[in-house]
Amino acid sequence: MIVARFPKPDFSSGYEYPDIVHPAPYEQLWNWIDIFLLVALMGVVAWAAHKKHSRAAIVGVSLFSLAYFGFYRSGCVCSVGSIQNVVLALTDSGYQLPLYVLLLFVLPIIFTMIFGRVFCAGVCPLGALQEIVNVRNFRMSRAVTSALSVIPWIYLAFTILYAATRSQFLICKFDPFIGIFRLGGDVGMIVFGVLLLLLSIFVGRPFCRFLCPYGALLSIFGSLSWKKVEVTRKECINCTLCHMACPVDAIRPPYANKVKEDRLAGVKRIVMYAVLLPVVTALCALLIGSGSDALSRAHKDVYLYDLIQQVEANPEMDIPLEVETFNGLGRNVEDLRTEVEAIQHDYKVYSYLIGALIGLVLSVKLIKLSTKRTRKTYEIDDANCLACGKCFNYCPQEIKKK
Amino acid sequence: MSEDLKKSPMDRRKFFRTCGAILAGGSVLGTVGAVASKLKVSGADVFWQIDPFTCTQCGRCETDCILPVSAVKCFHANKVCGYCDLCGGYYRPSVKDLNTAAENLMCPTGAITRKFVEEPYFEYTIDEDLCNGCGKCVKGCTSFGNGSLFLQVQQDLCLKCNECNIAKVCPADAIKRVSQDEAYMLKDHA
Ligand code: SF4
Ligand code: SF4
Ligand code: SF4
Predict the structure, then answer these.
(1) Which of A45, A132, A157, A176 could form a disulfide with A118 if both were Cys (CB 3.0 to 4.6 A apart)?
(2) Are residues A246 and A110 in the same domain?
(3) Which residues of chain A have pLDDT under 70?
(4) Helix or strand or coil: residue B74?
């Protein structure tokens, strides 16, 4: 492949070729230090949230994680982004998932299944950053938060679509805080990150609640968690203080279900749900599936093929660099076309799948909104509780203990 | 006995919730297990690297790295170099006088130094601290010389973004994930 236009020099002065050593990559040991710290910090939060019932330790973990994972390790690869690596490893036979990335993905899930969302509490640098700046929490109505909480699922669905089709890593592209950690990068995303941080001063964790796709996943595992975070182990006196303190609105007030539903109405309601769920799911699948060709333009090769078509259609236009390179490398348009067809086929399949996922989430959220449960006291909603521990210091029963 | 029958709905719900949690947890674990068996996991890390034989020196390596000065640098394979006096990577194509005035030189940052070895040979060295990965010298050398200059991601500078920002826009698709033993694709080894 090397074209030797000039012959190898034939030195007479005893010249020796210099010995150039190229710097080795970062020590892989760092990856394992990351994993160790991840486990240790989640352990500390679990202990602070369940045993010690103290927020101080959790704030400490947040500060440490922000400094280490955020600024020092500059936040890449993170657990949130590792979703994409896992999806890619499942769909791309050429990609081997590094073990430590798999651990980054799995360990927070395992901890969440046992202790609740202790990763979100302050081990995640993205969460920690918002946690540190938060001073007030402006409470939004339940309808608004429920509607907004669908966004992470849609985001997750598209992340899966784009990772599975090897198009791009959406989470990395739209990470609002990475630019802040690295003190540089895409200006638009940094501005977005700063705006989100300003918002986090008044509204608890806007990214975690209304954007983070990993948070969406963890919310499922959170609601299944074995050990639940409790505001206090003593009797709740329904004083509402913890409810006011929770930055993510995860504490539900008592509610008395006064109207007793009769049996027939109950059965009717369940039948309606049974119809609603598949219908909404199918509709969403159809909707996204029908847009798959348009979506596939996010793939480099499809985009390139499009550009080539455009250049063919009007030869006067400036030839874009992509097309010039394509021609320069002597690649074949027919081959590209078959490739593009295969990609578009993948897009079709995955678009239907993620459409169904979005539909499923939508209908479950709707059903949840319409079912009301009786609660005698203030209760933590485990799916949304981030184990941040803010409520501990507000509970008068809890303070009495100390 | 009667105590048992009159259990409050809260207790009953707790029971159902536990059942539900076990069921859901079990099925989640099951799916995870099924997915895990399909995953190809490896103990080794992955890196980003440029295939120097595919790269067309488009210039995006300079502009699209997330670092303020690109992690992509010019490397020099001395064993491929012709040690020419009139170097296509060192001088601009149409220079009149072969002197080292900046306007005659290809490299915008003055990262290439040349040293006289013996008649008629010159040795070229790249100062990676100055190089910004623009690839101008590489283009010159590849079109007019032996192609001993080539671009590589310098691994101690690269932050190993989960998705390399340059790979996303590389028109030649020259940037790929590679394993540790391919962390560099050097021309003098080819
Ligand atoms: S973007 Fe690709 S083609 Fe352009 S200089 Fe970098 S590796 Fe070469
Ligand atoms: S992985 Fe990131 S730091 Fe490395 S070359 Fe690509 S953009 Fe630059
Ligand atoms: S011309 Fe560009 S690529 Fe070559 S040494 Fe100078 S800065 Fe580096």
Answers:
(1) A45
(2) yes
(3) 1-3, 26, 75, 401-402
(4) strand
Same domain, A124 and A145: yes
- Quick: pLDDT tens for B101-129: 777 788 889 889 888 888 888 889 999 89
By residue range, what is the domain housing residue A111? 29-256+379-401
d(CA B175, CA B157): 16
Query: What's the whole-model pTM score?
Result: 0.86
Gap between the Cα atoms of A196 and A173, Å rounded: 16
- Among the atoms of ligand 1, which is closest to the Cα of residue B56? 3
Nearest CA to ligand 1 atom 5: B57
| Per-residue pLDDT band at B89 (split at 50, 70, 90) | confident
Q: Please work out whether the CB of residue B104 comes within 6 Å of at least one atom of ligand 3.
A: no
The per-residue pLDDT for range A213-236, each reduced to its tens digit, is 999 999 988 888 888 888 877 888
> What is d(CA A294, CA A296) in angstroms, rounded to the nearest whole number?
5
In a domain, A2, yes or no: no
Torsion of CA B48, B49, B55, B58, to 10 degrees: 50
Assess whether pLDDT exceeds 50 at residue B4.
no
Distances in whole angstroms, Cα of residue A23 to Cα of each of A182, B152, B156 = 22, 12, 6
Q: From B41, which residue of chain A is nearest by alpha-carbon distance?
A: A97
In sequence order, the β-bridge partners of residue B105 are: B91
Q: Strands (DSSP E) along A83-191, which ranges? A: 97-98
| Residue with tokens 């060295």, as numbered in its chain | B125
Terminal-residue alpha carbon distance, chain B: 84
pLDDT band per the 50, 70, 90 thresholds, residue B43: confident
Domain boundaries, chain B: 2-38, 46-189
Residue A58 burial (CB count, 10 A): 28
State the closest ligand 1 atom to the C-alpha of B60, by its place in the atom list counted from 1: 1
